[in-house]
Design a protein that fits this description.
The two termini are 27 Å apart. The protein has 2 domains: 157 residues, Isopropylmalate Dehydrogenase (3-Layer(aba) Sandwich), CATH 3.40.718.10; 154 residues, Isopropylmalate Dehydrogenase. The protein has 334 residues and is α/β, with parallel strands linked by helices. It has an 11-stranded mixed beta sheet with strand order 3-2-1-4-11-10-5-6-9-7-8, with helices on both faces. It is 44% helix and 18% strand. It catalyses: a fatty acyl-[ACP] + phosphate = an acyl phosphate + holo-[ACP]. Homodimer. Probably interacts with PlsY.
Amino acid sequence: MALCIAVDAMGGDNAPNAVIQGAISALESADDPLQILLFGPTDRVQPLLDEAGVSSDLPLKLVDAPDVIEMTDSPAAAVKKKRESSIHLGLGAHKKGDADAFISAGNTGAVMATSMFTLGRISGVERPSIAGYFPTLRGFSIVVDIGTNVDCRPEHLVQFARMASVYTQHVLGTENPSVGLLNIGEEPGKGNEQVKAAFDLLGEAEDINFKGNVEGSDLLDYAADIIVCDGFVGNILLKFGESMTTVLKKMTAQEMERQQLPPEDQQVVAGVLSEVSKGFDADHRGGAPLLGVDGNVMIGHGRSNADAIEQMIHATADLVRSNVVNELKDAFGE
């Protein structure tokens, strides 16, 4: 039976064009049967589908969602006032079982708030969390939280570690994933009161493979499978990583110009740098899972292009097939 994914056509800076192209590409490149429910205003989306030449044979259906949640809208206003939005109706379809998952590259706060309102939390989870990917010399580490929860108690960090451990094991296939606590030093007793208390709680958790504190200088060298921090720190870390490629490319271009490298040599260097930079590029990672809600929700970068949307749809299909929601329920004793 084909998986069905609800897609927010209006989510992101490049919507709806990039979302439409990404959805079409995902359907064409899918290895297993896949269907897409595309939510957005018919008067804006249907002409673009017609222009793209979408045939009736393609398993893509447009569902009218006349309200549009802008990136600048407050989450509270989005939940209360725009009930006919693509986020509301898409999550509603997932809740009713008409779709197996929901994805959006739109307003993260609105997706988070509407997911909580529509799907609810898994029993025992106090704070759902978004888990992101951070590139290292040996693949990538999962960083959790990356901005959902800027003020956290120590027990919240433990829950983040537990949810990320389940995700990393069942979706990414890493057995007994290691967990590091982001801190200002490796030694026990380092950090603020929140982090010191979390260190003790993580060490006591039998279902978490806690390796201890991790310093910022160790992150790029693959300090652990999972890096735990509050959303304030995690969001700064993620955005710093995303900015690195732009800065490195500019610095490299300036230095090549200063050294008067021949154009052919500059092309070689630029090509190598472009390949190295892909790990920091959201287009190659797709989306980030919202863990802890009672459903499959994937959130994309606001700047997502068609390639990122395509990757996010495939990653969401893997999320559904892994049955991670039920695995999380087992982990939290539901």
